[in-house]
Write a structure and sequence with these properties.
five-stranded antiparallel beta sheet, four-stranded antiparallel beta sheet, alpha+beta
Amino acid sequence: MFIVYGRRTARIKKYKNDTQSCPNCNFFGVNIKVYRDYYHLFFLPIIPVGINTSKIYCNNCKRQIRSNSIETEYEGKARAPIYLYTGILLILSLILFAILNNLENQKENIKFVENPIEGDVYRIVKKEGNSTFYYFLRINEVSDDTVYSYHSSLMYNQFTDKLSDNDFFDQSEYFIFTKADLKEMLDKGEIQSIKRNYKENTGFNRVK
């Protein structure tokens, strides 16, 4: 994959000073341009780096002049614009979105566990020693506080969000839980997600 990244320079501010004279033509009036380096990824600014630098140009003869006092003054007052933090802000936004989305999913899972209905599919994670595996439970019937479910016929050794093509829910054996059991499993993190109103390509309607 071709990745374009590196360091570039942006002009972050332009000032006018009509009290400074040009040593070349004695004209009063100069432009001060302040610059700042930044890192980019695919030319998208990530974060500013280094310190401000500046250049001074005469408004009359257009020649560049040097003045340490003016350069220091305007370099000190210029602030990096917000767009130079685009990458950092984007990353923080994605993290915030993920956190809020996870909190919303947790609220939804609690609601689904408290009120299970036929067809709900639970993704279960189990850890044994250094091994982690996943499987699915599909709610078949809810009677008062008792929940009857079918187990997927396969176990998965990696995260998956749907049944493989040769997997199905085996109705030859019931797995029985109470709502309190399901709540405890959710609290322990054993129930990773609960799917309701899912799409056909998930395979969650395959019961044999």
